[in-house]
Structures are given as C-alpha cells and as structure tokens.
Amino acid sequence: MTVKIKVENLSKIFGKNPKNVLEKLEHGVSKEKILQETGHTVGVNNVSFEVEEGKIFVIMGLSGSGKSTLIRCLNLLNKPTQGKILIDGEDIVEYDKQKLKEFRQKKVAMVFQHFGLLTHRTVLDNVVYGLEIRGISPEERYRIARENLAIVGLRGWEDHYPNELSGGMQQRVGLARALANNPDILLMDEPFSALDPLIKREMQQELLDLQARLKKTIVFITHDINEAFKLGDRVAIMKDSVIEQVGTPEEILATPKNEYIKKFVKDIDRSKVLQAKNVMFKPSTVVSVKDGVKIAINEMEQSGLSSVFVVDKERRLLGLVTIDDAIKALKENKRLADIIQENYFTTGPETYVQELIPIATKNKYPIAVVDEDKRLLGIIVRVSVLSSLV
Ligand SMILES: Nc1ncnc2c1ncn2[C@@H]1O[C@H](COP(=O)(O)OP(=O)(O)OP(=O)(O)O)[C@@H](O)[C@H]1O
Ligand SMILES: [Mg+2]
Question: How far is the centre of ligand 1, averaged over its atoms, from the C-alpha of 241 (Å)?
Fold first, then answer.
C-alpha cells in the first residue's frame, strides 16, 4: 500500500501572532484559555495521520471541532502554523507559488457543503470552469465536462442553470466539476450534509460506486457517525481540535478509546458496519473428504458439534456432514462423499451482518464464509451474529 497523504504534527492557529501561541499549546494550555488570554483561536492542534492511496479517509467530529480547518490545510487554503503535509512524499507546505498552483490545478480538488456553483453559468459551464483556467482548449474541455457529467448521472442537464436543479443534483455538478481535472485527491467537506436523508443515502451509495471505479484518494468530512462508518476505510474522530481516535470503523467499534468515543458509537447501527469477516471464527474442526466417515464422527464427538464442514485438500468447501447422517453411513458402509449435503448458507467475507441476521436465525447449520475460490475462511453461528450487535 502506498501512502498518499501523510500529515505530521499539524497545527493551525488563527490570529495575529499564531507562532507565539504555539508554545502555550504545546504546554497543554486549553483552547478556551488561549482564546481568553491571547485572542487566538486554535483550529487544529498537533494532528497526525496517514491516508493510503485509493482509500476514503473520513474526518468526523462535532461542529467547531476543527474538521474544515484541517481539510483546508490539505490544499493550503489554510496555511498551517506548524507541521508537515506530505503528498506523494513532498511537503506541500514548502511549495512556492508556481508549484502550489500546479498542485491545486492537477492533483487535488474540493467539493463543498453548499456546492459552491456559479449561479450565472450553466451546469456544463460550471464543470468547464477549472479546465478553462488551466487553458485547456474549448473542444477538449467541453468533451471532458460532458464525460464527467455523464459519470455523475447528469447527462441531459448540461444547459440548465444550477437553481433549476435539486440539492442532490447540484452536488453532482460539484462532484463532476471536481472530477473534471482528474485529480488524485478529492477533498470533500460535508458534501452531503445539506441534503435530505433519502437523497443523502443515494449520494453516499453513488460515491462508493464511483470510488470503486475511479479509486481516488478521498478525504471526506462529516458530523454524521453513520455516514462516517459507511464511507470510511478509516475514520478519524476529532474533538476540540485534536484527533481523539483513528482506525477502521470495526476497530473503533470494537475498542473505543475513551468515554467520548463510546458515546459517539453508541448510536451506530453495528449491523451496517460489521461484516462477515468481523464476526466469523475459525471452525474448531473441519474434515477432509479423504478422511472418511469414522474420522468425521470422531471430530464431531470431540468438539461437541452436530455437524462439520468438509473440504478438499486445497481447503475448498465441498459441503456439510451431520452426525446423524454420519452414524447411519457408518452402519450402511457408505463413504463420506455420499452423505455430503449442501443444505446450508454460504457468504463472502464482505457481506454485512445486517444481511446475515435473518439467515443466521433461520438456519440450523452455521453459515460458511468462503473466498472467490470457495475456500473456507470461517464460519458464523447464530450466537456470534447476535452477540456482535451489542
Ligand atoms: N478563518 C478563521 N478565523 C478564525 N477562526 C476560525 C477560522 N476558521 C475556523 N475558525 C475557528 O476554528 C475552530 C474550528 O472550526 P472549523 O470550521 O474547522 O470547525 P468544523 O469542525 O468544520 O465545524 P462545522 O461542523 O461547524 O463545520 C472554531 O473555533 C472556529 O471558530
Ligand atoms: Mg466545517
């Protein structure tokens, strides 16, 4: 995995003499006290994190926690008071004017909460805007703009004006405009917060679909923990200008670092975050098809199970054998292969627990989790699905 963005000890203080305030901050003086004593506002306080190429990194936190200040540092709309921002290994804080201009035009694009569209320009001309600035020929820029409008599902709306579009559609224009420059990095500051819940969910899904194809590196801001956990490969939770915890949604759910994080994740619908791979476990026993009936019975007796999965020598799943069938087979001199049944449910490792709940509660046999080659990765029993939810 390549690290695309690496932020090291980044601080941003607003006010006349921010550098003078740094020392107080480093000595642990609180944000309130700094404001009272010096009139400076701490936006971001000593934040470090990494974003891998092609991943979605979500920054989440309550209003005023420093999210926008932080994301605006990533394209230097905010000049950091201290710290490094390495993008592809280069510290952009050190960039001169020319390099910064190139960086902003080619490598990074931003999508804003309130869309930020030019109301007097058509949809097409909004998307063209950045390409125009870059001096791309009219023919080429209109071709690119149309292509990107199609990508976000707005073919046919090119000649309309932004105020003729719904909020969701306006944000699609914002997204098309950001994509038009083909940036490696997309910065999205609460892009869906102004949308009503249904449209919001639709846009979230579309972003995930788009991302599966385009594989941008995305920094996405939200104050909605459900949105954060749905979209984020990794999530950083901010409070009072610092990052309280960074991790995958599963990590944060499983080991919230403190009471504050616990309170946040309390409202999370765990079944929409946890996947089969998070709740499966290694079966205590499997039998190989060449082991035979006797060994199968033995294994089941020893582990106290009434059924066992049968695999081939590459650990590919062949089926399931029950203890009743096995005992009968022993009497009737049948082979293990004769009594293998397929009356159970298989799933992939990425299936959400939400979809597994009804299956796990109905089926008497464990759910088999298999990879693309049908290799058995783990099993899920009813109790592990249910206990993952509390
Ligand atoms: N340009 C600025 N000048 C002075 N203070 C600022 C500026 N921008 C942000 N701040 C302050 O920095 C702190 C963090 O604000 P920021 O906008 O980053 O929060 P946020 O997490 O994005 O909040 P929201 O969810 O409301 O958008 C706040 O105390 C805010 O008042
Ligand atoms: Mg903000």
Answer: 9
